[in-house]
Specification:
The protein is mainly α and about 500 residues long. It folds into 2 domains: about 425 residues, Growth Hormone, Chain: A, CATH 1.20.1250; about 50 residues. About 80% of the residues lie in helices and about 0% in strands. The protein is globular, with a radius of gyration of 22 Å.
């Protein structure tokens, strides 16, 4: 194994103005990448009509992006730690721009799905790498905690702002404009990165793990494909059963193989920290819930209530507004009182949002619909900052890229599953009328309610005294690893 002898190249010596510029560049890049997860939702009805596709095609339009993100984001973070975060960040911005152009030119649903996958390859190099850059740019723990909290809130705001901006672009121009708008923004981000973002690397480099990478792709790909296609093939289909069996075997392979590597793709030793484990699970549950909400809601507003794309986007303005209002507050609350309180409140808001949505009908007064959406805005505004801070703030810098990548994997896996499950639940119910769709939605709302309960429980358990003790022991473990000690059991060392 190769170790770098140079210390972690940090930005400790740069001035406050340049730190602010670096932070802004990272936030802009990640806003574009995260917004492209949700902005496409508002365009789904237009894409369906223009490209003459099915609900399965719409699911893959969203999931081709998030599936690639979930599969490769850990690899991108570890490569950035090795070869340079600034360098990988620039590659990501470039690939994302090329993918955006191709999405805007896609002649068919197959071409759009392929271009979305290319977009996602670039996006894998943005979110975790940007968080690692921010972590090394702010050496002071207090400033770093505030920056990470703000960064987490911007991630949530981008997800909520996507449908609003998408509605404006779809109605005034075309669904293709939601991709073309990325290009000038990315050009500015590339220039800013070249001029202001310093290079940084981890003090300890990690080897490539091809087996772990293949296992992760097979696990996520087979699971998502099984969920999406089960609507048409049936859960008892030999194809679906075989895919689920492959997913289980891949998971077992990860659990058995990864601990035997010195530098695994999935650093399972991170999960010895209860706060980190809880943060990853909450990230998965939170994004599964929110993306399921977005997937069914954008179609409810346009196809069931007959609203234009812009009007539908504006109906989601309460969500974006509350995220913008509550996210900074949540960051401050985490800094002053810890993550438990905002996580519990966020989970409670999600529970109430799922329960209230069970009463929505095609002709429910719009005021009542918007009031329900406020609960989802409160949820996302409060949940992201404590998750991000909990996952990264207590980790040693040498693990910043890996820890951030795993949390991003949790988020993208949740997003992918949210679309796959929600699309499978509502299926082709729209063809049977407006009331049939709202009845089918009930399955999504019950799922969201259960996910909210999960977040409340994890928020309480993963942030207690016992959990903090496990985090301290995990940090001590990685300090030993950084000093070159092999802490694996004797029977698996090699």
């Amino acid at each position: 194994m190769t170790h770098s002898t140079a210390p972690d190249t940090k930005s400790d010596g740069i001035g406050r103005r340049r730190r602010s510029l670096v932070f802004a560049i990272c936030c802009v890049a990640v806003m574009v990448a995260m917004m492209d997860i949700s902005i496409v939702n508002i365009a789904l009805p237009s894409i369906r009509r223009d490209l003459d596709t099915t609900i399965s095609g719409l699911q893959w339009t969203v999931d081709a992006y998030t599936l690639v993100l979930a599969s490769f984001v850990v690899l991108a973070g570890s490569i950035a730690d090795r070869v340079g975060r600034r360098r990988i960040f620039l590659v990501g911005l470039t690939l994302f721009g090329i993918g955006s152009v191709l999405c805007g030119l896609a002649p068919s649903i197959e071409g759009l799905v392929a271009a979305r996958a290319l977009q996602a390859v670039g996006a894998t190099m943005l979110t975790p790498v940007a968080l690692a850059i921010i972590t090394t740019t702010y050496p002071d723990p207090g400033e770093r905690a505030k920056a990470i909290g703000t960064f987490g809130s911007i991630t949530g705001l981008a997800l909520a702002a996507g449908p609003i901006l998408g509605g404006v672009l779809v109605d005034s121009l075309s669904w293709r404009a939601i991709f073309w708008i990325n290009v000038p923004i990315l050009a500015v981000a590339i220039l800013g990165t070249v001029l202001y973002v310093p290079e940084s690397r981890a003090a300890r480099t990690r080897r490539f793990d091809p087996v772990g990478q293949v296992l992760s792709i097979v696990l996520l790909g087979s699971l998502v494909y099984a969920i999406i296609e089960s609507r048409w093939l049936g859960w008892t289909s030999p194809v679906i059963l075989a895919l689920l069996a492959v997913a289980v075997l891949s998971l077992l392979g990860i659990l058995l193989y990864e601990p035997r590597r010195t530098d695994p793709l999935f650093e399972l030793r991170l999960f010895r920290s209860a706060p980190f484990s809880g943060a990853l699970l909450m990230a998965l549950l939170a994004l599964c819930a929110f993306q399921g909400f977005l997937f069914v809601t954008t179609q409810y507003l346009q196809d069931v209530r007959g609203l234009a794309a812009l009007a539908a986007g504006l109906c989601l303005l309460p969500v974006g507004g509350l995220i913008a209002l509550l996210s900074p507050f949540a960051g401050k609350l985490v800094a002053s009182r810890g993550p438990r309180l905002p996580l519990v409140i966020a989970g409670a808001a999600l529970i109430l949002g799922g329960a209230a949505s069970l009463w929505l009908e095609p002709d429910t007064p719009l005021v009542a619909v918007l009031a329900t959406y406020l609960l989802f805005g409160a949820f996302l505004g409060l949940v992201n900052p404590p998750i991000t801070n909990t996952a990264v703030a207590g980790m040693p810098r040498s693990m910043a890229g890996v820890a951030a990548s795993l949390i991003s994997t949790g988020r993208q896996t949740g997003t992918t599953l949210g679309v796959a499950i929600a699309g499978t639940i509502v299926g082709s119910s729209l063809a049977n009328g407006r009331h049939a769709y709202t009845i089918a939605e009930h399955g999504v709302w019950w799922l969201i309610l259960v996910l909210g309960i999960g977040i409340v429980v994890l928020g309480l358990v993963a942030n207690g005294r016992w959990a903090k003790g496990t985090a301290e022991r995990a940090v001590e473990l990685f300090e030993e690893v950084d000093r070159g000690a092999d802490v694996r059991p004797a029977e698996v060392r090699r």
